[in-house]
Amino acid sequence: MKFFIDTANLAQIKEAQDLGILDGVTTNPSLMAKEGITGRDNILKHYVDICNIVDGDVSAEVIATDFDGMVKEGEQLASLHEQIVVKIPVIKDGIKAIKYFTDNGIRTNCTLVFSAGQALLAAKAGATYVSPFIGRLDDISSDGLNLIADIRLIYDNYGYETQILAASVRHAMHIIDCAKLGADVMTGPLSSIVGLLKHPLTDIGLAQFLADYNKGN
Ligand code: G3P
Question: What share of the chain is helix, strand, coil (3-state, %, to 5)?
Fold first, then answer.
């Protein structure tokens, strides 16, 4: 399973990269704004800064919602750095744009996916990644994990190579459940990743080992 961090915060990206387990970064316009990164030039520079920290894929989202605008913006984003994956919303022009980028060798991440039908269209258009937002489904008492299971089944039925990128992950248990269901990638906050480490028996056991060692030294 690939681990992406879902943030535009450079310090957190560095911390995850230093752990040695980071495979990439996802961002969106809200995450950029949260870090105070506004204005086209600053946003483009920030993408390059992120690419220079991590080794893997970095999703950069288009703002345009029409085909021509998405193509123009996506080509600009892709030209920034070889690690950039163009993130495109799952709307009609977005599917057309994904197909265009697929045909032109530019990798894409189809975002704002909330149904199996949307994920099927993203795969047919050749998206590199599809991003079902599981936390936001859970927020409205709809089971986000069911969507991951449905997409896995559909993609496996037909051998689609689009990678399932479980997004809107909120906590460690989401990561475990997505891993059990066969999601290819998860993206979440740093807290969800380091949350995987937490176990009181590890802390108690380590304290005991150190105490016992110190008895004889
Ligand atoms: O990757 C999608 C993600 O940024 C959405 O997460 O927590 O805002 O629902 P969230």
Answer: 55, 20, 25
Comparing C-alpha atoms, which of 148, 98, 144, 105 is closest to residue 121?
A: 98
Atom 1 (ligand 1): residue with closest C-alpha? 167
**87 annotated active-site:** yes
User: Which structure tokens are listed for 176?
Assistant: 């475990």
Separation of CA 43 and ligand 1 centre (Å) = 18
The pLDDT tens digits of the residues spanning 41-60 come to 999 999 999 999 999 999 99
- Closest atom of ligand 1 to 139 CA is 9
pLDDT score of 216: 78
**How far from 23 is each of 49, 121, 156, 184, CA to CA, in Å?**
16, 26, 23, 12
pTM of the shown model? 0.96
DSSP 8-state assignment for residue 76: H
